[in-house]
Amino acid sequence: MRCKELEPLAVPFVDGELADADGADVRAHLAACPPCRTRIDAERAAREAVCAAREGMREGAPPALRARCARLCRGRHSRRWISLTLAAAASLLAALIWFGGTDAGTPVLAAQLTLDHVKCSKMNGARVSGSPVQLAAYWRERYGWPIRVPAAMNDRVSLAGVRRCDSSEGGTAHIMYRIDGRPLSLFIARDGGRTPRIFDVFGHEAIVWSSDDRTYVLVGREPRQEMEALAAIIRKDLPLQ
Fold first, then answer.
1. pTM higher than 0.70 for the full model?
2. Could you give the CA distance from residue 80 to residue 163 in angstroms, rounded to a whole number?
3. What is the dihedral of CA 148, 100, 114, 51, to 10 degrees?
4. Which helix (DSSP H) or strand (DSSP E) does residue 217 occupy?
5. How far apart are the first and last CA of the chain?
6. Measured between alpha carbons, how far is 81 from 69 in angstroms, rounded to an integer?
7. DSSP-derived 3-state class of residue 156
8. Where does the pLDDT of residue 147 fall: very low under 50, low under 70, confident under 90, or very high at 90 and above?
9. d(C-alpha 207, C-alpha 203), whole Å
10. String of b and e for 93-106 (b: at least 16 CB within 10 Å)?
11. What is the mean pLDDT of residues 107-134?
12. Between 167 and 182, where is the model more confident?
């Protein structure tokens, strides 16, 4: 099997829907192809994130999203609306996942950002490196809003860099750390009013809290007590630069 032949089989393989012979071919290819193993790991992470957020996705659309849809409808002919359906559906789904019914959608937010954490750690996504001050200055200049980049929380943690979160088109900063060599992520979003909560998302702890008009999500595989201690250190360093 070649990598291109795996492409249409990736999702059914992860879903357990392939015939035995096809599944055996995929497993044999994955044993010899690290890039395709990474791809399958990402597909599994995506599936687990959706399953973990299933209940939160049943929430109704938030008022802001409903108002936006209503504005799009006004003054347009129905034929024009139909022609935009597919593109709009993708945009609205992304908006639903992000806004997630405000606080009621926090499980969706936690799952989506945990998925980003997993994908970035496996695929080594592009990031900008530097000191906390340099990274904060880069983010403000590049994306137009300020963040504070916490330094390493203790001597086991090192700052790896910052990147734009893929799930929010620049609306979320992804600050990347390593703790004893393992990935640790802090996401900062222009989003407030979230009740502090902790989620277990496919083996990761995701700690969510808000301060002023920012929401913070700390994601990692460390024990919950240690993750809470790290989050407490970060909270002391929240004022904007």
1. no
2. 37
3. 170
4. strand 214-220
5. 53
6. 11
7. coil
8. very high
9. 13
10. eebbbbbbbbeebb
11. 83
12. 182
Amino acid at 158: S
Residue where the block lists tokens 């609205």: 92
Q: How confident is the model at residue 185 (pLDDT cuts 50, 70, 90)?
A: very high
Place of tokens 């995701």: 206
Contact 131, 222 (CB under 8 A): no
User: How many other C-beta atoms lie within 10 A of the C-beta of residue 87?
Assistant: 9
Is the Cβ–Cβ distance between 146 and 136 less than 8 Å? yes
Using CA atoms, how far residue 184 sits from 61, 177, 198, 229, in Å, is 31, 5, 15, 13
CA dist list (Å): 30 to 1, 41, 52, 162: 10, 11, 26, 31
Cα 62 to Cα 202: distance, rounded to the nearest angstrom = 26
The one-letter code for the residue type at 198 is I
Mean of all residue pLDDT scores within the chain: 79
| Beta strands 204-211 and 182-189, pairing class | unpaired
d(CA 123, CA 120): 5
Digit-coded pLDDT (tens) for 17-69: 888 888 899 999 999 887 788 778 777 776 776 676 666 555 555 666 667 66
Phi, psi of 164 (to 5 degrees): -80, 135
Give CA–CA dist 154/180, Å, rounded: 11
Pairing mode, strands 197-201 and 172-179: unpaired
pLDDT digits (tens, 9 = 90+) for 92-104: 445 444 444 456 6
* pLDDT of 76 higher than 90: no
